[in-house]
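Researcher: Let's try something more involved. This one mixes different molecule types, so please make sure each is placed in the same coordinate frame as the others.
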Amino acid sequence: MNQIDASLIDWSRAQFALTAMYHWLFVPLTLGLGLIMAIMETLYYRTKDVKWKSTAKFWMKIFGINFAVGVASGIILEFEFGTNWSNYSWFVGDIFGAPLAIEGIFAFFMEATFIAVMYFGWEKVSKGFHLASTWLTVGGATLSALWILVANAWMQYPAGMNFNPDVVRNEMTDFWAVALSPVAINKFLHTVISSWLLGGAVVIGISSWYLLKKRDITFALDSIKVATIVGFVGVVISAITGDGSAHQIAQKQPMKLAAMEGLYEGGDGIGLVAAGILTPGKQYDDSKDPFIFDIQIPKMLSFLAVRDLDGYVPGINNIVRGGYITPEGEKALSIEEKMTKGKKAFDALNQYREAKKNKDDIQLAEAKKLLDENFAYFGYGYFQSPADAIPNVPLVFYSFRVMVILGGFFLLLFIVVWYFSHKKKFEQSKWLQYVCLWSIPLAYITSQAGWIVAEVGRQPWAIQDILPVQAAVSNIEAGSVKLTFFIFVVLFTVLLIAELSILTKQIKIGPEKGDEKE
Amino acid sequence: MDYSFYQHYWWFLISLLGGILVFLLFVQGGQSLIYSLGKKEKHLNALIGSLSKKWELTFTTLVTFGAGFFASFPLFYSTSFGGAYWVWMLILFSFVIQAVSYEFIAKKRNFLGNKTYKAFLFLNGLLGPILLGAAVSTLFYGAEFVVNKGNLTGLMPVISSWQNPLHGLEAAIPVTGAATLANLWNIALGLAIFFLARSLGALYFINNIKDEEINKNARKQLLINVVGFLIFFLPYLIALLFKTGLTEDPVTGVISAEPYKYWHNLLAMPWALVILLVGVVLVLWGFIKGIFCPQFTKGIWFAGIGTILVVMVVLLIAGYNHTSYYPSVTDMQSSLTIANSSSSLFTLKAMSIVSLFIPVVVAYIWYVWRSLDKK
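Model: All components are placed in one shared frame. Result:
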């Protein structure tokens, strides 16, 4: 039997993480800024005031520069499912491929078509058609996010499928269970609407730069008015959907929640770690205190996880040992028991295929029964130790705190900016303008931290409980992936520098004056 | 409508998308002509400006083609993309640098300089068609892989194993061994697609840019590239029709060799032969009128529609009539057919409902471009 080099898995993960994180630098701004510029154009359409046209056109230029790199980095991600995760592509392609194809048919063509009207159609189509095209461009981007997040959510909460041992793959049995799973809906809302936060932060940051330079004052203040509202709505809804997401994680991915909290020993009425420093080198089976220092909000984790101040939340050790009662009211199995069941599923699958070859109907039925009983733990069969089931706790723990703390900061920032803007004091408040300017990188850190929590927290699973990454990877030389990894590092870094250089130049040029004379 | 119907329907859609993609490679063909036709700065800007409004359609079609293949024939996605790693990576790199170039080239302080972005466009115009053509040719001349769906229960499972250490580059680089001749044919199709894309690119410029000098030079380039296309494509097409292909027993699933398989496929599907001939006539009409009639500007439509029809039929005969559309030269029984590599009936049905919206997508693209071009 072919054996895969273990370092291949690490390089494949690194490459996918790298390309996803680069892609995720550009997508949130497309979603957030897209909404802001569409609102600005709507204001132009309704008020006929050309200052809104000029304002919208400027942000469209920023949108376009950002959009190009987003498109470029996006194509890599789609094809990487095949190039780097070949086993995955067959094992779940029957389910996973569909959202990607729908994304292509509905979203990509919508974006690609109407973005052309948005840029080249100002003098060629009616104002109403142009406005519709701008909204359809933003709608296309959002629709694209919907389908890729449906696919991503399905990986974290596989639903609407059945394993077919004849062809050794999972097959879709309920399209709507995949597309409208509660995890998919929440993930979509949380991801897209948190992008409004980033869009709002970027717009108020750049607008503040104009105010600091004492130029394009009206444009900057108008932009801030729209961006503050979008950003504020984004933070508030993100907080609500984030809470929903944490609640779902508690039900479906308890190990991820435990990693987010650095929680090794769970129990009833568990507190939420507001701030803390993890003990370096802490392992699940040692006796070290998980924290060097921590501040907890009593009982809050239990409340957020199970909506009960005294509710039970399992820690990493509890999940490894099993024996606690799950939210479904069943006794949780230990990881070792799950590994045993996973290996039973392997044996049953092999027996099934053997029986099929020998046309032995009795053995076929027995093997199928055994497979069905154990398939829920199929992925655990690949593990060699319970430690394989635990993600990188420090990375998930700190990323979660960075995301939440910065989310709180932005809530405060948007409220303060709105207040100063409403009282017409923002133009005079240099300190606040500096805060807004320097908050731009913080918005990106918030966004990336959220992505790390979602994706590192679910490791080692490519498909939760069904397929770990080590079983999903393509059988290629680690050296090949290492080489493409570094090519991507160089290529995307160069493109990022180019984008930032063009963006800063475009910002220095500022909004077009010509349009204001129309 | 049974499972087989949906498998055939989806192979038809993949073939149609493939045909549209090859037609839209006129963007890449145009990019590889920018140095030949754009010797003056204003001409260069006009050429790039003209292509800048169309490149996203090609790009999006490529992405949809990949996603459609993933959704409908995931075993191909798994085997070819995971095995022929380098050829797909090179194709992707060439499209990544294209995607940013159109946005960045005209911008001030673009870090790499305008010349670099022009070079990126040229590189994509060169590599994109050649590598895509070579990759498509493996649908006839095969690749070195073994598929074992049951090999999933080891600690590190492998469903598809590529047997050549070049991981796809062998399709575009002649190497020693049994597959050398096949590799030469792969290169021939790659070059044929390259010259076809350039011919279509020249026709597109003739249609889209009102400039006498560009028009005159584009017609010269059209002649050169049509000759190049015919030199590589005609022998390829003839060899294909005489080639031994692989056929699957629909009852047992056993795969065996069949001489003149693709010619037999055309005879078994006379409607495909008719469409092929219509496509060839349209392509030749577009080319000949484009070369010899200085006032004729609609050649892109004739040659373009003809290209879609020809490529569609070529892909249809690769997969229909129980043909293996991805033959394994290492293990014949590992070869992929539309029956053994497709998604489940449920998924194909669900995706077929989605596909009914494709005419709506085509309609709004058409409407939008008419709106943009009419003034």
